[in-house]
Specification:
3 domains, binds zinc ion, alpha+beta, two-stranded antiparallel ribbon
Amino acid sequence: MQHSVIPCGACSSEVSHLAETCPKCGHPNDWVHPQIKKFLSIKDNAGTKGYFNYTHDKLRLQCKADGSLPWWYWVGLVGLVVFINASIVVAFIAGLVWTCIGFACKRHKILNIDFSQEKPVIENNDKAFWDGLLIQLDVK
Ligand SMILES: [Zn+2]
């Protein structure tokens, strides 16, 4: 700062502009940077898009407003929800297809034995199921 000394508001003795109080009389030094002083006079009509809080000391001004979440947060959130729902739909369709394929592929357990040959000709599609019968018929 250019003018590092200002007159005390009470006793007019010279006070550093950064001093909290006058060293002579103890009067509080309410000096702040001129821009901060200007801010304090216009803060209620500051031209911002919304309400904000502020703090300041003699040389520093800090303003803070509640911000809305950034656009990519919403994109990500919507994407996640869509992804989860799509996953559920895909899983549901996959399960449905799987079940349909299971029904379509369901086969009867078949055993055909042709005794017309010297050695019986056995056709079956589930050996484990028919095995006991084949053993009892002694046609293995
Ligand atoms: Zn003073």
